[in-house]
Amino acid sequence: MLSGVYVEVTTANPESPRTVLAPTDLGLHATPWRSYRVECLEATAPANDWTLFLRVPLTNEFQVLRPAAAAGVQFRALEFVAEPFALELTKIPNTGVQPVLYGPVDGTFEVRQSDHVTEPAAWQTFGTFRMTNTFRILFQESLITAQRFFQVIEPSPHRSQSEPRRRQSGDPID
Predict the structure, then answer these.
(1) Most buried among 34, 40, 99, 145, by the most CB within 10 A?
(2) CA distance to 8, 115, 151, 165, per residue, from 119 (Å)
(3) Distances from the Cα of 127 to the Cαs of 59, 99, 109, 134, in angstroms?
């Protein structure tokens, strides 16, 4: 993790643009195609605990993270594998929402959607995904899309179809 320094990052590919890390930015350099949990700690208050800053589905060796790092805050990054699984919705300013599915490698998960969650909810399958790494970046949702709720289930040959493990929009993930 880097912050408060000017860094210019280039890749082995001459076609790739250079990345500049400004003094107010936070950068993560780690193994690509793994997910990370970035935590922060207010250094001026030693009694504080580490708290979640953001989860990062890393697609390159280096990624500039936003929002900008604040003064007096320490950061650490830990490899993150959601067990059993998690669906995170991240707001993209002026554009929409980016859902990211987290789960163990080789897991298979079904993402469902509905316009309400009151029973009986009419869940429609959006897609079934086999995890080839610890995250899967899904479709980008427009801000003008009508209200939708998401549910993730893990079909299992050891469970009946009526009893799959499931998580719904709003369920906490650590």
Answers:
(1) 99
(2) 53, 12, 14, 18
(3) 22, 13, 8, 17
Q: Which residues contact 62 (CB under 8 A, 6 or more apart)?
A: 9, 19, 27, 28, 29
pLDDT at position 17 is 53
Question: 57-85 pLDDT, tens per residue?
Answer: 999 888 888 666 677 788 889 998 998 89
| Distance in angstroms (rounded) separating the CA atoms of residues 64 and 58 | 10
Q: Where would I find the beta strands (DSSP E) of 7-163?
A: 7-9, 19-21, 26-29, 34-42, 51-58, 62-65, 73-79, 86-92, 96-102, 108-114, 124-130, 135-137, 141-142, 149-154
pLDDT of residue 102: 94
CATH 1.10.1760 describes domain 86-168: no
Read off the pTM. 0.72
Query: Are 11 and 17 within 8 A, CB to CB?
Result: no
Name residues whose C-beta falls within 8 Å of residue 15's C-beta, 6 or more positions apart in sequence: none
Share of the chain above pLDDT 70, in %: 70
For residue 148, give every residue at least 6 positions away whose Cβ sits within 8 Å of its Cβ, in sequence order, or none: 113, 114, 115, 141
The bridge status of strand 124-130 relative to strand 108-114 is: antiparallel
CA distance 128 to 98: 17
